[in-house]
Amino acid sequence: MTRQPHDQFAKQYLTELLASLGTVEISKEVPGEVRQIDLYFAPSATPTAEPQTLGLLGRLASFPCLLEPFRNQPSQTEIRSCLLKLLQLQSEFQRQARRENRTLSETELPRLGILATSASSNLIETFGAKLELENWCRGVYFLAEALKTAVVAINQLPTVPETLWLRILGKGTTQQQAISELIALPKANLLRVNTLELIANWRINLQMRENLTDEDRELIMNLSPAYLQWREATLNEGIQQGVQQGIQQGVQQGIQQGVQQGIQQGSLQGQRLVIENLLQVRFGFRDESILQIVDALLALPPQEYTRLILQLSREDLLARFSGDRD
To answer: How many angstroms separate the CA atoms of 249 and 258, rounded?
Structure first.
């Protein structure tokens, strides 16, 4: 599987988590030969959330840093490319400081975090990376101090709450376990809510791909529990809205009848939210033409409208369901 679907999710996911702690830039360009940093993070002096809420990820992001996620074990060349981007960005920081006639301390220089789903002992040894178990958990390897670089082998991280937000970027059983822990968090947890939506979108995007590999299918299975939780929450949101509307109507019609009508309306409202979200994920926008076919899609069973949204083009959907309204 190519890196692209994982990269897209990882960037959105890390942006969602880190936005409350500082400034996030996606695909930041570095000087010289055109290169892009997957994600650059600069911590805020007054964050709106505590870094501790993100555990190990929050610790890694306590300094300006480049974060480079890899779906598979990175090669030596890929790690060297990440190091080159780091050194170029550090040089740019130093040039900017000289232009401003100030001295840049070592702590102000950006660092590099390579987030790898796995890293073999041979790969780690070729870069002379070491564990620092007195201060950091297993799975976090540091290159020589002056290089300001850590390689995080996600599959080696301990299964503890502190590592949850990084283990979600893992593979196989590592990711599967992390998603189970995510689902078990309190339903009011905002990080849980937002992460479930991102994972659900990732799964939907994967399902739309042609010629799925065995790895793609395994990933879809791993992401399915999160997708179902998101779908259930969306339906429940619609039901709650419908109940509130029913209670308001019940003032005139009788409370019991109003609530029953509200539950029925809410179920439809929940289905409507699911359809609108699927259309937005599928096509990246929601124009008036697309919104006008939601009612026609609502008349179908959930399995049927989900299949059609994922398989048909926008033009085919409009042609099929616009005709249903005539």
So the answer is: 6
pTM higher than 0.70 for the full model? yes
What is the β-pairing status of strands 111-116 and 65-70?
parallel
Quote the crossing angle between the two packed helices 255-283 and 302-311, to the nearest 10°: 20
**Which residue matches tokens 């232009």?**
99
Name every residue whose Cβ is closer than 8 Å to that of residue 192 and which is 6 or more positions away in sequence: 182, 183, 185, 186
Q: For residue 308, which of 325, 290, 326 has the smallest C-alpha distance?
A: 290
Phi–psi pair at 29, nearest 5 degrees: -85, 145
Tens digit of each residue's pLDDT (9 = 90 or more) over 148-187: 999 999 999 999 999 999 999 999 999 999 999 999 999 8
Element (H, E) at 41: strand 35-43
Q: Are the C-beta atoms of 203 and 224 separated by less than 8 Å?
A: yes
pLDDT digit string (tens) for 108-125?
Answer: 999 999 999 999 999 999
Stated as kind and residue range, the H or E segment containing 112 is: strand 111-116
What single-letter amino acid sits at 14? L
196 CB neighbour count, 10 Å cutoff:
26
Structure tokens at 208: 């739309």
